[in-house]
Amino acid sequence: MPGGPVAPPSGGPAPAQGAAPGAGPHPRGDGDGDSDSDLADRVVARVLAVPGVVRLHPGVLGEVATYLPGRAVPGVRLRPDGTEVHVVVSTARPIPPVARDVHEAVRPLVRQPVRVYVEDLESPPHRRPSAERAQS
Predict the structure, then answer these.
(1) Which residues contact 94 (CB under 8 A, 6 or more apart)?
(2) H or E, element range at 133
(3) How far apart are CA 86 and CA 81, in angstroms?
(4) Are 63 and 93 in contact (CB under 8 A)?
(5) pLDDT category of residue 21 using cuts at 50, 70 and 90
(6) Which of 53, 60, 78, 120 would staple 27 via disulfide (CB 3.0–4.6 Å)?
(7) What is the pLDDT of residue 14?
């Protein structure tokens, strides 16, 4: 499953794909004059706020990024034909709802289709019971 859009259990359109109303040639959807840098930062903030998202994923070779003057924003591609978000998801939450929530968080920010890719899974850190910690 890593590396591809997540299909919903119902067999309908993938929750990680779709276009916001007014899809157009430029990634910005709000028309307020934000730069691509501001938009990329807002996408990152929204994605990282989704429960179950551990972090953004830059791709196997670091190729998944929005390249800006002086820096890159790994895990997010802003393109005229679509926005890609690549994430690592916690195993503590089911993947389809996390992908759907990421999609819904990003969709209002852009005009073009949003595609969410779950690149990897990560288990939450194992915590020892407090009685074990007291004996160590």
Answers:
(1) none
(2) helix 130-135
(3) 16
(4) no
(5) very low
(6) 78
(7) 37
Three-state secondary structure string covering 69-104: CCEEEECEEEECCEEEEEEEEECCCCHHHHHHHHHH
Q: Which residues of 101-111 are buried (b: 16+ CB within 10 A; e: fewer)?
A: bbbbbbbebbb
DSSP character at residue 60: T
- In contact, 106 and 85? CB cutoff 8 Å: yes
Helices (H) and strands (E) in the chain, counts: 3, 6
Could you list the beta-strand ranges (E) of the chain: 53-56, 65-68, 71-74, 76-79, 82-90, 114-122
Cα gap 99→52, rounded to integer Å: 9
Give pLDDT tens digits for 40-77: 999 999 999 999 999 999 999 999 999 999 999 999 99
Q: Give the predicted TM-score (pTM) of the model.
A: 0.70
Q: DSSP secondary-structure letter at 108?
A: G
Tell me the one-letter amino acid at 47: V
